[in-house]
Amino acid sequence: LDQLHHAHHRRLEGHVRRNPRLRLFALQPPHPRSRRQQPHRLDPFQIGNLNCLTVLNRAGKKISVEIPASLSRLQSLNHLELSNNQISGRIPADFDNLKTLSRALLSRNQLTGPIPDSMSNLLADLDISMNQISGALPSWLGDLPVLSTLNLDSNAIGGQIPAKLLGSKGLGIINLSRNTLEGEIPDAFGPESYFMALDLSYNNMKGKLPGSLSSAAYVGHLAGLF
C-alpha cells in the first residue's frame, strides 16, 4: 500500500497502523450536503508511525487540536497541508527534524506565537496566512535557498522587514499584508530581485519608495509600496 486516500467520508474512525511503505495520506472533507460536521481530531497515532510518508493532506477537516509532536517523526515528509482547520497553539519547535519538508501550508487556522527557528529548513512554499502569528519576521527567511513563495497575510507580525528578505534571489511572491509591520521599506532590491507579487499593504510602515526598486530585474504586482 503506497497511497491512502479517503474522499467524502462522514464517520471514519480509528487509527492508521504502522506502514513503512505509505507515501501519501489524504483525507478530504465530507460532501457539501453533509451539513452537520463534528470537529476532527489530529490523532498523533494516526501519523507518527508512517515513517516514509511524503505527503500529508488534512485540509478542511475541522481539526481542533494543536499540531502533535509526533509529526516531527515523519522525516520523509515533503508536503504538509493542514489549512482551513481550527488548529491552535504554536508551531512545534521540533519542525527542524523535517529535513525534506518543502511545502508547509498552514493557512486559516488559529496558530499563535512567533515563527519558530525550527522552520529554517529547505522550504520552497510557506503559507501561514490568516492565523494569529505574532513576533518579528525572522531574518533567516531571506536565507532559505529555495523559498519561492511566502504568505504571512492577516497575522499580528510586527517589527521591521529584514533587508535580506527583499534581497533574496529566489523569492518571487511575498505577501505580508494585514500585519503590524513598522518602519521603512528596506532599500535592498537589486538586479537579482525578481518579484511576481509583493504585497505590503495594510501595515504601519512609512517613508519613501526605495530607490533600489528601479534596479530590480522584475517586479510585477505591487501593493502597499505607495
TrEMBL record:
Keyword Ribosomal protein belongs to the record: no
rRNA processing listed as a keyword: no
Coiled coil: none
InterPro entries tied to this protein: Leu-rich_rpt, LRR-RLK, LRR_dom_sf
Major localisation: membrane
Top-level taxon of origin: Eukaryota
Protein name: Uncharacterized protein
